User: Fold these one by one.
Assistant:
Number 1:
Amino acid sequence: MKIFSLLLLLFIGSLSFTQEESFDEMVKSYYKNTVPLIYPNQLYKKMLSGEKIYILDAREGKEYEVSSIQNAIHVGFLGFNTRKVSDFDKNKTVIVYCTIGARSETIGEKLQKDGFKDVYNLYGGLIYWKNQGYKVYHQKDESSFVHVYSKKWGKWLTVGKPVY
């Protein structure tokens, strides 16, 4: 019985989370849950539907220049001010993203405070978007490169080529 118990403990101890479960834990540790989440498949369906939505990229310029979601509008993070979106219809859906969703959640909070009614944070950011098989673009051309902000976050990119 002791050998069985020991083997069982060794087996259980050797189990590890899958890459996606670990990514989920990491992402959730950064979220404050102040902005509703939208998942890549949900955003993609909205994009295909033709619904008028605003997709905002809350990364810095050097990150945005590497690649972005098609038709995303760069608003940045450090210098973000709601005046950048003052001509947007506040009743339309706004989806904000960054690398993993932490900075975009902060931008989403600012948009909510400014009166935007339907604001979402893209779960897992551009890393998760790309890992789920969705395309990113450099200007108008499809790209395999994703600016991953740092090596700490870059390890989570499983599809595509990281840029630091």
Note: The chain is about 40% helix and 20% strand.
Number 2:
Amino acid sequence: MDKKKVLIITYYWPPAGGPGVQRWLKFVKYLPEFDVHPVVYIPENPNYPVIDESLKEEVTDAATIIKHPIKEPYRWASMFSKKSVKTISKGIISDYKKQNIVEKLMLFIRGNFFIPDARVGWVKPSAAFLQDYIQKEQIEVIITTGPPHSVHLIGLNLKEKLGVKWLADFRDPWTTIGYHKQLKLTKASKKKHKTLEKAVLNKADQLIVTSFTTKKEFEQITKQPIDVITNGYDNEKHTSFEMDSKFTMSHIGSLLSKRNPEVLWSVLKDLVAQNSDFSNDFQLNFIGSVSDEVLQSIKNNSLSNYINNVGYVKHNEAVKYQKKSQILLLIEIDSEETKCIIPGKLFEYMISNRPIIALGPKESDVEKIITETNTGKYFYYDDYESLKKAILEHYKGYKTNSLKTQPIGLQKYHRKALTESLSKLL
């Protein structure tokens, strides 16, 4: 029996690094096992903020990859300020008071001249190219995944012209994502975002979201079917490592300006001052981009000497850091908008057998998953005493070599199980 051809339209694909790549890289890996032949459409000349060449090895030979050129505004913007472009394209936006005139101008242009995002110039040429390809290859189903949400406009265009079945996958929400407030959108720009969002949510045949909160949000805008398929974990290649000799607390991924838990730094400052053994054993690992504001907060709490600021590493290296760390930190911005954010790294954290300490808003989807799976402890930004107590308990476990987790029900988050759920929607 011939496998069903499904066209997947995505901006992020190896050698792009970061969490946005993993979701569809893994779906594409497992889809052939469910009688689906994935055809992946990507930009020919993208401007990825983070590169991880090792991810190329994970692209399955069973997929067909097609490419088309893209005009990247971030390239010409780099002529004015390479640093600002790099941080903005990674999602790191510094506090408004600390932005220079170039950064303020670039954010205004990004927010109001490129709607929904800086890749909007790829929409028309892609739709024209894919219209011919879909008819020639007799493709019946297309999938778009965002961000960038301009990718969904390609799906909208193809739906209107060809009537092809269309699934729109949202790895993040659209108009309620936290950084929208920092883009200095005019009233007209906000309205345009809302109009485009509503069009996509109502014209797509099926919506897929990564969180339960986003599903509830979208249900207020559309009556189209919405399924939650979270991110997940995959079987990683076995790598040899030794557990850290220090009492390491490691954060993997970006620490944005507002992802800055002062309560945690305050607790650690006091533990270091009050307990000489803790002070000798403690180390704070940052694996990924860290904003200047976060580093300044840590300096203000006299913790700079305890930092091991590694920076971005390849995915397989990040996995090794996860497995050998004593504690894994998961930090989210304390706001209503971030309750729906479930970072992809959470699922890798959960199978690393290391306790998770998570901080974020009350009643978040992350809190629900961590509690259900018994993989760590979740704290709010005002939980000084309980956070301090938990870190001390973990420190005692470290000293007695008994620090580990007892997870429950992780199998449903395996990438293959999640792909099976996706295949049923196709």
Note: The chain is about 40% helix and 15% strand.
Number 3:
Amino acid sequence: MAAEPLSNGATHLSVPGRYILPVHKRPSSSVNGKWALPVVDLGGDDDGTIAEEIVRAGREFGFFQVVNHGVPEEVMGAMMRAAEEFFALPADEKMKYYSNDGKKLPRFHTSLRNGTGEEVLYWRDCLKLGCHLPEWPDKPRGLGAALEPYTAAVRAAARRVLRLAAVGLGLEEEHFEGSLSGGGMMNVNHYPPCPDPRLTLGAGPHCDPGLVTVLMENVGGGLQMLLHGDGDAGGGGMMWVDVDAAPGALVVNFGHQMEVVSNGRLRSAEHRAVTGARAARTSLATFVWPEPGCTVAPAQELVLAAGEGPLYKPYSYGEFLAVYVAEGGVREAVMAHLKH
């Protein structure tokens, strides 16, 4: 039986059993404070310096925040208001778009935990939209008008990040253009207040499947990343940390395809979402990824320049997605399929 979306109005005084994670997968007692994301100013004049900053953040963390990104504040505000209004619609309006078909767009659904075969749910509802906007829900009335300028501006910011990442890696500026970045989608995520955030997650640990993800959120405190102790962060081992971004900034992270194309020089960032007891959180994640038939492989220039063999074998992005879904997005399992 399909679960009822959380935003449909049911009041939960406790966490229903289907949302409760096994003890070792719960978020309680696993966070070691907050962490300030590296800040990259995309509005600067020195592209070489900006490229170095992007590659440094990608190598050490896979996460950073961008300011002066070119997405107007009023465009961001209109898009967030429309997103919040969608989840506040009456249930019958939202359920017109409800589907468990992962290929359908637009698609409204509640979040099933993948990779286990168990009926354990994450504390999240989601509206999936195609980035090329062939269709969107007709309510709320301002959604379509907000989506077009927001999507165009965010994808332009993502393209600038990809061009600068290419420069910082020593590749041609256009390396990521064309079919390698021709696909994409937007997840509009909604995390209602949770009666006991210690027992469940909004989204489980995963790396994003594409090249780069650009995130906007209405309130902070939900995104966490797995911080590795082998970078400038210091310390040893790994720990989950809360990720904070400045007001008006966009959060950027690299996905599996960037790690492969860079031959391991840039990190695909593992992250998750936790829930909160008091306030609902809404976030918009815009994914840029290859077209399904695109062949993905380490850049030859990087392999030859380093005098090392490719760490990953070539594959089509469609093949990768089948693996990603089958493995539930679990980083180690997915990467094991890609390595030589």
Note: The first helix runs from residue 47 to 60.
